[in-house]
Structures are given as C-alpha cells and as structure tokens.
# Entry
Amino acid sequence: MFKTIVLALDGSEESRQALPLATGLARQDGARIVVAHVEQVGRGGPIPANEHEIQAEIRKQAEELSADGIETSVEMHNVMLGGPAHAIAEIADGANADLIVVGTRGHSAVAGLILGSVTQRLLHLARCPVLVAPPTDRS
# Structure
C-alpha cells in the first residue's frame, strides 16, 4: 500500500513515538522511509545548543533502519520562514510520499492553535495522509 513514508523527527520523545509506527508500516509494505528533520531558525531565537546532537541521533536512527533492511534516507533542512510543517510537506511532495508519520505533544486543539503545533499545521498542508502517533501516557 505504501511505497514511500516520510518520518518527521525533531529529537523529542514525542517524535520518537512515530518511529515504531513508520517502521512497522515500512516492513509490512516494503516501503522506503525518508526521515525528515527541520530546524526553524530566525525569529530572534538561536539554534538549540544540542542541535548537532539531535541531528547525530536522527542519523543514527536512520542508519539502524537501513541496517534492519529498510531503505532509508535523511533530509535535514533549516527554515526561516513558513515553519517546519511547510518544509516537511515539501519534503513529502519531493519524495512522492504516500504517507507522513509524525508525533504529537498531545496539546488540545485550542492549545495547538495558540502554540502553533507543527503536527496540526501539517494536517492542513500535506497532500498525502498524515498518521499521528499519540503521546505516551504521562500519568
């Protein structure tokens, strides 16, 4: 069913929840995974001090997927305008993706609007289905 899956990772625990979903679907369908990481720069804020560590972790996760037999590539982008959701949607378009898999922090719809949820924005921008991994139970 799926040939290309874009897996959006930002280094957070919430985004890691999307990893097993994307991996399972890729194995089931023999799909390839394009790991997308987008760092928003500008808006007066610096790049996080641990951005290099985040990128290294994401590359390691992609290497592990490849070692497990899943064709995997990595797309890392920095954006100043438009935000990460736009860039992830563009990566998916460029990869001819059948699906985008992404995590969520579990904010309510109102909080998501106020906080500018990348996942919520992606749901409106993507030209392919978006599978949202639920947050882990923190109770």
Summary: The chain has one domain: 9-133. Residues 9-133 form a domain with the Rossmann fold fold (CATH 3.40.50.620). Helices lie at 13-16, 18-29, 51-67, 83-94, 109-115, 118-125. DSSP finds six helices and five strands in the chain.
